[in-house]
Structure prediction request, 421 residues.
Amino acid sequence: MFVIRGGKPLQGEVQISGFKNAALPIIASTLLSKETCIIENVPLINDVFTLVDIMKEIGADANLSDDGVLTINAGAVEECNAIFDLTKRLRASYYLLGAGLGRFRKAVINYPGGCNIGTRPIDQHIKGFESLGANVTISHGTIACEAEALIGDHIYMDVVSIGATINVMLASVLAEGKTIIENPAKEPHIVDTANFLNSMGANIKGAGTDVIRIEGVKDLKGCIYTVIPDQIEAGTYMIAGAATGGDVLVKNIIPKHMEPVIAKLREAGVQVEEFDEAVRVTSTGKLKAIDVKTLPYPGFPTDLQQPITVMLTQAEGTSMITENIYEGRFKYIDELIKMGAEIKVDHRVAVVIGNGLLSGAKIEAMDLRAGAACVIAGLIASDETLIENIYHVDRGYEKVIEKLRALGADIERISAEPSRG
Ligand code: EPZ
Prediction:
């Protein structure tokens, strides 16, 4: 559990870590080579520890240093057969399907789990693999992909999907001939993964645009690479600073990646100053109600929907939040209502009546970003808030206690007494 005594504006500096949703596919990509990759700026978070353990479990040699440098060599891996408990814990284990197909023409993993934010089909991943010539079978809770040969193809994504776009890239970099991905996801972590693969010797053009073109190559080498900063972690701290009427310098970011968040904060009356690798968020505490729609990049990211909804409970007026990506990403709102928030949810729309009245309560983190939202709610409420199941937060936010304390937050981690009955 976290115990937070809030009501104080966050003041100070926070250093952003490497991006979880880029580091995870990049780590899986190392399966495509027999040589050593050195990956810097890897965030020390549980999802990364789990994926590194999965890589070791299938035979890779890996070492993650305390300062976030991962040295990994998958040369000794003979097959990609990752059906053990670890892979159930992490949605990103599905990247082993694309990488395993690319390297061995065969891969088997558990059917992917992940945050409970709605049904999370993988039909587009399967469509991509089958277009390249793979047979995919789902049975006994596992997914098995196998191909005699992988031949490049022209693939049209029916849905903009980060996971499917990355998985098709992974499966096609060592395929024969050219693969074209239409309607791909364009998030910065797609570009980061493509840049990493190109550093290994792949031939990928157009990542981050509407069409990605991949020319298959014979094999991939080792490389040295630095993961981009985590724009979702950065956005979370920016929103926390604004929500508490604070003054926060968010360092080690790429301002371009923060544009959707900067635009919305400015619309809400928050002052945002941009520097080369930092932004400064200053709020007088007076926030204007705004409307937010989550969309694929460069739209407002779904992963920040929960944090900004909490901020908008402090705005003057009524805000409307439309969650266009996941139909189940409003579960945390019941926890905010326990704290006095006035929010009504109808399918994909939440209407927030800004009343500024969040009071401490015992609440529960439902998923990673819902956990971040609960923390922001606790930082706003002027008395004590207890947040259970904060393991969700540890999956994606490195050193969250230290970083928040450095901003003046009164937060501590206690072990949850075993719930009776
Ligand atoms: C990635 O999930 C992230 N997870 C999520 O981050 C993030 O919320 C999401 O992208 C959107 O930004 C990882 O990177 C491990 P999608 P992913 O495929 O790849 C539908 C976090 O908080 N879809 O882009 O699963 C899907 O239902 C986590 O860090 C299909 O219909 O997201 C959703 O509505 C949570 N068929 C939409 O596309 C498919 O085959 C976007 O999903 C795949 C997806």
Q: What stands out?
A: The domain at 2-17+229-413 is CATH 3.65.10.10 (UDP-n-acetylglucosamine1-carboxyvinyl-transferase; Chain). The CA atoms of residues 118 and 327 lie 5 Å apart. Residues 21, 24, 91-92, 115, 120-125, 159, 161-164, 185, 302-303, 325-326, 368-369, 396 surround EPZ (CB under 6 Å). The first helix runs from residue 20 to 29.
